[in-house]
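Lab meeting, action items carried over

1. Structure of the two-component assembly. Owner: GW. Status: complete.
Input record:
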Amino acid sequence: MEGLKLSNAELMVYIHPSKSGNKLKAICRELSSLLFQYDETFDGVLLAFDVTVKSKAAKILAGLSPYFGVKVDAKLVLFNPKPNSLVEGEIVKISPESIHVIVLGFSAAVVTDLDIREEFKYKMRNGEGSFVSMSHKRHVLKVGTMLRLQVESFDEEVMHIAGSLIPANTGCVKWLEKQSEEVSHMDREDRKRRKIA
Amino acid sequence: MGAAEVLTDPSSLYNMGNNDLPDTDNVITVRNALASVHSGESDLYDQLVETIQINNRSDHEVGAQIDTVLKALSCSVACIDTTHHRRLLAAIFGMSLWNHKPHVMDALVDLLVSLAATSGKYLDSCLNRLVGHFVPPGWVINRLRQQRVIDLKREVLDRVHEALLKISLLVPLAPSRLFPILAQQLPKINKKDQVVVIYVENLLKLENSSIGQVGSVMIFMMVMERLRDLDLEIDWDDILQDDSNRGMFDMELEDAMNEGDEDTSSKNIVFESLDKLMVTSFHHLETCKLDGRLDQVFEKLFESFENFILNTYKSKVSQFLMFYACSLDPENCGVKFGSKLMDIFLSSNKPRPTRQASLSPLWMSAVAYLASYLARGKFLPVSYVATMLKRLVDECADYCRTCNDDIRPDAHQLFYSGCQAIMYVLCFRMRSILDVPRFRSELIPLESILMHKLNPLMVCLPSVVGEFLRKAKAGGMFVVSDSFIFDDLLESELSRAFGGFERLDTFFPFDPCLLKSSNSFISPNFIYWSMVKQDDEEEEEDDAEIIVNGDEESDEEEEEEGDLDYALNKMSITPKHSFKNKMERDRLMKMPSMIRPSTSPPESL
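Predicted assembly:
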């Protein structure tokens, strides 16, 4: 899973004087208002944070309401899937024209039939639709499957990912991992054989 | 697949539409038509747009055509381009479920869901289009009594809810985009009453769905805000002054209808609208109770009450939403409501960085709500009322201990409101509380509070004080000084002073509900003054059987009874006008036995 990053940030949080009673709560409240929103300063969607107040000194702003600025050190978990990066999510709907996925529980991703590689064919079994690979019969994509997809574009406003299943390293996460294990196992076996020979 | 099925079983959403796949040829044709725009040959595309724009509900062939096109479009959403296919998108978003047969409705809803889920660019437009159906067209509103239209309404709105649910399952952040749209499209209060009612019905239906789980509080805020707006449209001058036999409000409606006065009829629309909205909300609370989630919903309801009603200047009806929720679940919601109001009032003595005066009306309002609630809630056990009274008494006693000031109503507003609240509750509950020795003993500090230099008996509303003293004397609560002689004024300069500009001294929020239908929900759990009065009379009759009075004494009693009746009639009447002149005073002397709501003098508005 790509697109996730941990950032350290030095922030100045401005707090309303009425919230001076519990400053830490006020700081968390301010930062919480940024959660699940794309922020250009952070260059990503804020998913989680952890703050420590740097000093007891605060800068008071001149004005009608004397807001005060508190300097904090924050660890931020950010999500910003760049084009061509690989993200993972659960399939929630499958139709012949599209696969709908939810990434990290909040971001909707869709792969349209134009972006599904030829290898996959849509099939209906027991009233449930699925995409089955023609070259690997066990590679099946259905509702509930964890899917690895390539990001084509990310709509920051509505957190919508347009994805693609064209690259070969995309598809069912479980199957792909099993494949890579088998490949590495076969590699090891080859090396052993070469050594014996 | 019916809407009801989908709403109860979200897993069925995952396979939606797959059983009714469109012909592959049609999909290819539509995709070609969409692609043709890029090459400049737009004949096919134009035909496509024209087909969608046909608005002929009765023609089956046209319906079938539209159905086919919409289904094929649902499968070609990825080929739609916001720039090149602007006309097509405008035509799709211009379609209304109200104008089509069920099979076209299904196709349109599927297309909107596909558009919303496939690209973030269409999400807002799709949500907007779907929410737009919560406001039915005029012809539907005018024929709402016809079964055919009722069925159509159900068919359309069920599909809209189903679609919103599907979108929220496919796009988890969709509710965050939906709520601002819902708030934006909420009809204004000057719209036909039925429009607002249908919209609110749908809001509450959403609250009951999985979408409500994330935005319940926002939905309640919207409903509360609309209730408050309607509430504020009703001026106290619109409420009829006197009718002892029938509900004053229904009489006003009838009379106003007959007069055909335009202004009055617009007021009636407001009354009816508010009444219907209240009833709709009551039904929703009942559903929440049946689903076992009333306790959870109550927290959100209180939050919206605190935001919109508590700080609203003398709300008349909207607050009964809280009263009804409490009556449905007295043990949880009922107790929470009183405690939360008490906490707000008691937060007044905490040190604050901001000026205390700015929050004073809120605290006074909270204690006014508390007093009225404790007095009127039939469902509240005496033990709870006594506990709350004890907290109020202790608070006032603490205040007395630390304060060495003389009568200064404006400087000690909160203290006087607390005292008035205690007396007001006791006017209703005195007998049941004094019957239990433990509760009686908890009220002992009250005597010292009333005898304090701040002299609450001189400052609080004379009608409340007079009735309280009479009951205290009858119940032997403490020795009442005969020096307290009150004239028949319903208010005094001092009470006016402590009530402040807002006249919160005369605010009793849970005086009888003025709306006919809403009142039918409230009245079974409501203590009317007449009930208290009846109890008192029965008690007096019992006493009379034991005590043999001399002639002289019985004459005195009769006289007293006459005064008593007047005092009872006054009880809980919040003076609407000050006694500026004799005529006004004479008019107010003819108060109905049904207790009138609290009102304010015009000069304070």
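2. GW to write a short summary for the group page. Key points so far: The radius of gyration of chain A is 24 Å. Chain A is about 15% helix and 50% strand.
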